[in-house]
Amino acid sequence: MAAGLGFRPRSTALLVSSLLALMVGGCSLGRVRQAPGTGPGSGNRIDPALSGDGRLLASVLERDGRARLILQDQPGGNLRPLRLRRREPHQSPALSWTGRYVAVLVQEGERRRVVIEDRLRGRLLRLPLQAGSQPERISLAADGSRLAVQMLRQGERRVQVFDLSGLLERDLPAGTAVQGGGPPP
Amino acid sequence: MNRAAAAWRILAPLLPLAGLLLAGGCAGLQPVPLVALNQALEQEESSREPSLAGRWLALISARQGRDRVQLVDLDRGVQLPLPGLNRPDAQPLSVSVDVSGERLAVVRQLQGRTELVLYQRSLGNARPLPITPAGVPRRVHLRADGRQLAVEVSRNGLWQIDLISLP
Questions:
Q1: B40: buried, middle or exposed (CB in 10 Å: 19+, 13-18, 0-12)?
Q2: Chain A residues with CB inside 8 Å of B73's CB?
Q3: Contact yes or no for A34 and B160 at CB 8 A
């Protein structure tokens, strides 16, 4: 039948399977694209983290023997300046809702530390953590109120969670109502 | 000498206040551990790959030698069931949760393959997400609103980042 219509059975099967794949893929998820480039030269891009509003992408670029944090606009890819330039290698970045806060692990001598850059106020905050533990991964809640840290201590990996509400102003989506500020007028 | 004595008479009553201010300032610069939660996590054999979003903490923990994905409601201090996600033949590698606690993105090894899946808690359903062009995923991050994924993918010996929009 297929041969009578001028198609070879194998080509028809290939066409049908391709169409099915397209239909299934199209229905199940949206657009897939690669993160914007970082200029000439290749390198590994690892540890992606998106801001809650999706306007910024943080990642670690491994190139020329360095591992440094980069922050890019989405979807354009323009690089945003950061105060966190040294103390490499950088690892495990995390962003708050608008990207006001950038948390990352940095290397200071033999120790790894959690540093949070407040991009609005232009300041760096170094978080003291439990002595004798090496932080390996971090996750910052989108509003900046909590931080989870994966620690390596005596060969065991443990997650610990910290309240940062005394350290950071909350970073909330625009238009979010907040409690406090005195009685209503 | 008389001047010093006079200055001391003025400053001495202020010292306790200065001490309080300093102590308060220093205390405010410390991250405060969530003691009850951290003690509960200590009960696991190990815990790793934390992901915080809103009131939710997702992580991978080991119990009786088996890794599994856990979801904790930090406000209520309880662990939530994830039916259909933790298969005995799967090894989770990375997890990320959205701010509503409805979606979890997981990279896992299953039957010799490494796959990216999107789990919807209300449906109890883990759906594989294809990596196109083909590659091996390692670490995933779900945007807080759950509408986009960033995933680390190995292709041709290089690590790249794919961004996947979700409906």
A1: middle
A2: none
A3: yes
